[in-house]
Amino acid sequence: MRPAIFPLLPDxxxxxxxxxxxxxxxxxxxxxSLDSGNIDDILNNADVALVNFYADWCRFxxxxxxxxxxxSNVIKExxxxxxxxxxxxxxxxxxxxxxxxxxxxxxxxxxxFRNGMMMKREYxxxxxxxxxxxxxxxxxxNPVREVKDLEEISSLDRSRRSIIxxxxxxxxxxxxxxxxxxxxxxxxxxxxxxxxxxxxxxxxSGDNVIYxxxxxxAPDMVYLGSLTNFDLIYAWxxxxxxxxxxxxxxxxxxxxxxxxxxxxxxxxxxxxLESLExxxxxxxxxxxxxxxxxxxxxxxxxxxxHPLLHIQKTPADCxxxxxxxxxxxxxxxxxxxxSVPGKLKQFVLDLHSGxxxxxxxxxxxxxDIAPGQPIQDLASSPPESSFxxxxxxEHRYTLLREKxxx
Length: 406
What we know:
Blueprint: H1 12-24, E1 32-33, H2 39-44, E2 48-54, H3 59-78, E3 85-91, H4 96-101, E4 106-107, E5 109-114, E6 117-118, H5 129-140, E7 144-146, H6 151-154, E8 162-167, H7 173-185, E9 190-195, H8 196-199, E10 208-212, E11 221-222, H9 230-241, E12 245-247, H10 253-258, E13 263-268, H11 273-286, E14 295-300, H12 305-310, E15 320-324, E16 329-331, H13 343-353, H14 355-362, E17 398-399
Parallel strand pairs: 1-3, 2-3, 7-9, 8-9, 12-14, 13-14
Antiparallel strand pairs: 2-5, 4-17, 5-6, 8-10, 10-11, 13-15, 15-16
Helix pairs in contact: 3-5, 7-9
């Protein structure tokens, strides 16, 4: 007769420990791993998606993983619907095609998507659970403020760009398209809406969307296209909300620098709006064709004293126009020449041709010297780039070098 075998019962203390551990350490949420087979489907169906582009060998990526996962846990409790908020990740070594598609130049990069569309501004805030969770809450807040009385429109802050929609009803395709556009561009414009009887006076020909530009006396502009055509109204709104000449600040300097385009900058005193208007007009008149080759910016002379010192200027010299090529800074000779036809454009063309660089190092080009005048090699050293220092920090990212490019 074979002896009976009784299974060993676990120690009661161990069972209690396991139970307590399970109660206080619930199963962690899964971060969705994206690949070429699922990325479009997952992102297109997500109201908001935060995607971590990482590499396993990058120590900054390794440091972010547990923080990103814990932030996902926090947000999942507040937004349990899987399509409301998605936390996802892409292993850029395994999926270099996706990294190239989204122009990843450093690890880790956190990019925000809305209904599959990547937002221009990536997440650059603190790498903490609280900061990331707060960022997502902010992204989930309603981007459109509802107006209860048209008197509110007359008291708008006219230093901001505003888009106002007047709709018969909130539950309509027109408003849903408007809200979708506002979700994407709310960092660039103030979005407001009015409905029903309140908006009736502004709906003489149906639902209506207008743009109020900065400035007390600037005239309103009316959108004349289809209100259900997302591509049309988005393009119109983006054109109004994202100015040709943008202001550079310490908050957006890293973002602008990372675009990789040289800067054409007007340094002006904050209250000198006349010089800014002249600069904007001449950029639009002379340089609209150069939009993809250089960033047109304006900067507060007081805030950006250091770059001015690099070019041997002070706020007392403002307004000053300069180019920062990310190697050197070059000064436009005389602000009063701004309105001379073609003068500003030639300054930019001389940057692209290398003439500004050559002249700073070797004196005037031979073609600019009168016949018979001796050619002198006047070696000089242009000031180094000042705004390059606003680029992403190597203490926070693994920056991809040319040899590392995906």
